[in-house]
Design brief:
The complex is a heterodimer of chains A (114) and B (115). The termini of chain A are far apart. Chain A is globular and about 40 Å long. In chain A, strands 2, 5, 6, 10, 11 and 12 form a six-stranded mixed beta sheet that branches. In chain A, strands 3-9-8-7 form a four-stranded antiparallel beta sheet, with no helix packed on it. Chain A has a two-stranded antiparallel ribbon with strand order 1-4. Chain A has no helices and twelve strands. In chain A, a hairpin with a 7-residue loop joins β10 and β11. Chain A is mainly beta and 114 residues long. Helices cover 0% and strands 52% of the residues of chain A. By secondary structure, chain B is an all-beta fold. In chain B, 0% of the residues lie in helices and 50% in strands. In chain B, the strands form two sheets. In chain B, strands 2, 4, 5, 6, 9, 10 and 11 form a seven-stranded mixed beta sheet that branches. Chain B has a four-stranded antiparallel beta sheet with strand order 1-3-8-7, with no helix packed on it. In chain B, β7 and β8 form a beta hairpin. Chain B is globular and about 35 Å long. The termini of chain B are far apart. The chains are: A mainly beta (114), B mainly beta (115). The interface between A and B is medium-sized, with 27 and 26 residues.
């Protein structure tokens, strides 16, 4: 069964500083990997996704993520955070065939301080 | 703004009652998935509907059931409510064959509190 681990429950970063959110997955084959963001009281918005090819993927709002098969990781990065980036971030994995359900991690809450 | 609308946004029920949550999918989308998000947790897949048929189910008991209508809107029904059913219920719409490309469009959810 596929699973996702986000080891950091809460991260606090100063505005303008760099950010890295960690995600480790467990899946037997090549996974489909995603990062979603959830602002308070909102649904989830897709930031970026990885299926194959270039292991560094670019997303919206200046985010990027790197797929490292050897480490079973898909960490999310941003070089300079803005106050509006404060939100909950979820990593998710899906199988690449059949029933397409997303398995989400427990999320990382990002707080931005001035 | 994803074009996916859910109702009601908030509701309170008591144990043993039944609840129906509704979702209107984005225009042109024929697949609807439902997720349960408990407080402090990530969303968990409940089930998916495609062309009015259930097309996959997560680890949820049969008292969680759903419907999809010809216009692709959907309902989630939960019978015999338990306290642990308190959660944010998220609906996501997509176009068939594209779900596992991550192109899910989520509504803002229905927050259910069971007392």
């Amino acid at each position: 069964a596929q699973s996702v681990t986000q080891p950091d429950i809460h991260i606090t970063v100063s505005e303008g500083a760099s950010l890295e959110l960690r995600c480790n997955y467990s899946y037997g084959a090549t996974p489909y990997l995603f990062w979603y963001v959830q602002s308070p009281g909102q649904g989830l918005q897709l930031l970026l996704k990885y299926f194959s090819g270039d292991t560094l993927v670019q997303g919206i709002k200046g985010f990027e993520a790197e797929f490292k098969r050897s480490q079973s990781s898909f960490n999310l990065r941003k070089p300079s955070v803005h106050w509006s980036d404060a939100a909950e971030y979820f990593c998710a994995v899906a199988s690449n065939f059949g029933n397409e359900k997303l398995t989400f991690g427990t999320g990382t809450r990002l707080t931005i301080i001035p | 703004e994803t074009g996916v609308t859910q109702s009601p946004t908030h509701l309170i029920k008591t144990r043993g009652q039944q609840v129906t949550l509704r979702c209107s999918s984005q225009s042109g989308h024929n697949t609807v998935s439902w997720y349960q998000q408990a407080l402090g947790q990530g969303p968990q897949f409940i089930f998916q509907y495609y062309r009015e048929e259930e097309n996959g189910r997560g680890n949820f008991p049969p008292r969680f059931s759903g419907l999809q209508f010809p216009n692709y809107s959907s309902e989630l029904n939960v019978n015999a409510l338990e306290l642990d059913d308190s959660a944010l219920y998220l609906c996501a719409s997509s176009l068939a064959g594209r779900v596992n490309t991550g192109e899910l469009f989520f509504g803002e959810g229905s927050r259910l509190t069971v007392l």
